[in-house]
């Protein structure tokens, strides 16, 4: 028998739930666009950096931030802002992505990257690439092509040349500083995690004026990696995630742990399914990584345009900007 009163209650609950769950609208505090970037996390301490080095890193971060912010301020898409910021960081030899990537055990540079569109959760990723100047552009091409999500090695490179992406030889990626890190690691028999500036991956997250989110990450991986090792950066859900319903995340850190914790997706799922704020969700998941023995950090932008960082290392190269006038870059934990 149908009980009309119960049915009515159920119907009312159905309609009222989303209304009750909706966050209080605060138009004044909501930026129309936002962006956050990172240039890796690690043992970054002021005492180990000269004033000139610090200045150069801050300038490089500011340039990448401004490139992304310009796209968003002009009404462009979050995806284009993310790509524009990451391309600059890939071309900068200071960071472990594109030019200046860390070396594998065999003395080569193997690059990983990924990008994701929060509108549809379309994604593109590449791993183990050695001949493409900007791996983030290749990841974007994989996504735009749409047939596959994740390409690796020689196949990814064939796809890159079919798409007419700019090639680069090994000498473009190789830097003396990174070669010394590999030599130090081999000579002192220390792990990748003991090499100073062990990380340095780059990434960006953005929310555009139409309210869409995107995330991207690009890396050379970890010094001394072997056997075709792939980290979290190109793994959708681990190093990169974007979903308009919750947030967009780019991660950096000890990739094995970030894969095992499914970091980027876990953060956005906590926001979407548990109703947590982005800071709380990010801190909780980075706490899980720490409890497992890993370290690193994330940048996050929420569906409302809030940008946050969370990391358990001594520092993380990072920056954020939005339409309300926020524009900051930071390196050390206390910045
Ligand atoms: N997450 C990267 C990896 O494990 C490294 C980094 O963030 O620097 O490949």
UniProtKB/TrEMBL annotation:
Xref: InterPro entries: Ntn_hydrolases_N, Peptidase_T2
Pfam families: Asparaginase_2
Region forming the signal peptide: 1-21
Superkingdom per UniProt: Bacteria
Keyword Signal annotated: yes
Keywords: Signal
Protein name per Swiss-Prot or TrEMBL: Isoaspartyl peptidase/L-asparaginase
Source organism per UniProt: Pelagerythrobacter marinus
């Amino acid at each position: 028998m149908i009980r009309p009163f119960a049915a009515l209650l159920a119907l009312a609950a159905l309609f009222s739930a989303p209304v009750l769950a909706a966050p209080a609208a605060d138009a004044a505090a909501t930026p129309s666009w936002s962006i956050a970037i990172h240039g890796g996390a690690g043992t970054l301490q002021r005492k180990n950096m000269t004033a000139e080095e610090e200045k150069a890193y801050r300038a490089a971060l500011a340039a990448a931030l401004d490139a992304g912010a310009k796209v968003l301020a002009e009404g462009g898409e979050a995806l284009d802002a993310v790509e524009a910021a990451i391309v600059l960081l890939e071309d900068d030899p200071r960071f472990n992505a594109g030019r200046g990537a860390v070396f594998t055990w065999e003395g080569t540079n193997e690059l990983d990257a990924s990008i994701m569109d929060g509108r549809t959760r379309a994604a593109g990723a590449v791993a183990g690439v050695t001949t493409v100047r900007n791996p983030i552009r290749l990841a974007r091409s994989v996504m735009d092509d749409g047939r596959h999500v994740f390409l690796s090695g020689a196949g990814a490179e064939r796809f890159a040349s079919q798409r007419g992406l700019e090639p680069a030889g090994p000498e473009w990626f190789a830097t003396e500083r990174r070669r010394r890190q590999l030599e130090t690691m081999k000579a002192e028999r220390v792990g990748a995690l003991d090499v100073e500036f062990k990380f340095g991956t780059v990434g960006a997250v953005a929310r555009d004026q139409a309210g869409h989110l995107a995330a991207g990450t690009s890396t050379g991986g970890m010094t001394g990696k072997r056997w075709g090792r792939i980290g979290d950066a190109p793994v959708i859900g681990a190093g990169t995630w974007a979903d308009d319903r919750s947030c967009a995340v780019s991660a950096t850190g000890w990739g094995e742990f970030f894969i095992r914790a499914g970091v980027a997706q876990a953060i956005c799922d906590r926001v979407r399914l548990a109703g947590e704020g982005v800071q709380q969700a990010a801190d909780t998941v980075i706490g899980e990584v720490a409890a497992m023995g890993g370290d690193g950090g994330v940048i996050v932008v929420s569906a409302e345009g809030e940008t946050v960082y969370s990391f358990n290392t001594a520092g993380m190269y990072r920056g954020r900007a939005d339409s309300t006038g926020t524009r900051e870059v930071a390196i050390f934990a206390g910045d």
